[in-house]
Amino acid sequence: MNHPSTLTSALAREPITCHVLDLTTGRPAPNIAVSLTLLRPLGPSAPLTATTSSDGRINQWNGEAGSSLSEIFANLAEHDDSKMVWSLKFDTGAYFGENNTFFPEVEIRFFVDAHSGHYHVPLLLGPWSYTTYRGS
Questions:
Q1: What is the per-residue pLDDT across 50-96, written as a single tens digit (0 to 9) for each?
Q2: How many Å apart are CA 74 and CA 128, to the nearest integer?
Q3: For residues 34 and 18, is the Cβ–Cβ distance under 8 A?
Q4: Is 14 strand, coil or helix?
Q5: pTM for this one?
Q6: What integer pLDDT is reported at residue 71 of this predicted model?
Q7: Is the distance from CB of 63 to CB of 51 less than 8 angstroms?
């Protein structure tokens, strides 16, 4: 059970972050365009966007007309009756080059409970395979 202080501190940073590691180099994957879309409830939303940093991370999302992920989370926390479903899309074709990968795009769909704090979604990426998990 989350205590109010835990939920507040979790919402101080973006509720959903991600990290991409390039398995061919064993290093972070910089400059990958990523979109984050709420699929349900009330979705699909306009996508939030970002590009992985030099450390392969996305810690901040850009929304249309200044909307923020934290605001969306706060508004959806009132809908206790259903879990949220979110989609992360990674532009892997541009990263590896279209002739150098099997996946032009990697999409990860996942459940989110607005009261469970922070969700970190790492992507371990190669040109011919990928895997993911819920990180911390």
A1: 999 999 999 999 988 777 887 877 777 666 666 889 999 999 999 99
A2: 38
A3: yes
A4: coil
A5: 0.85
A6: 80
A7: no
Within a 10 A sphere around the Cβ of 59, how many other Cβ atoms? Answer: 13
Residue 92 has which token pair? 């892997």
> Taking Cα atoms as reference points, which of 57, 48, 52 lies closest to residue 95?
52
Give the Cα separation of 14 and 68 in Å (integer): 9
Residue 17 pLDDT: 95
Cβ neighbourhood burial of 66 (10 Å; 0-12, 13-18, 19+):
exposed
Q: Band of the pLDDT at 45, cuts 50, 70, 90?
A: confident
Bridge partner residues of 36 (DSSP): 48, 88
Listing DSSP states for 46-114 in one string gives PPEEEE--TTSEE---B-GGG--HHHHHHHHTT-TTS-EEEEEEE-HHHHH-GGG-S-S-EEEEEEE-T
The residues near 25 (Cβ < 8 Å, ≥ 6 apart) are none
- Return the SS3 of 118: coil
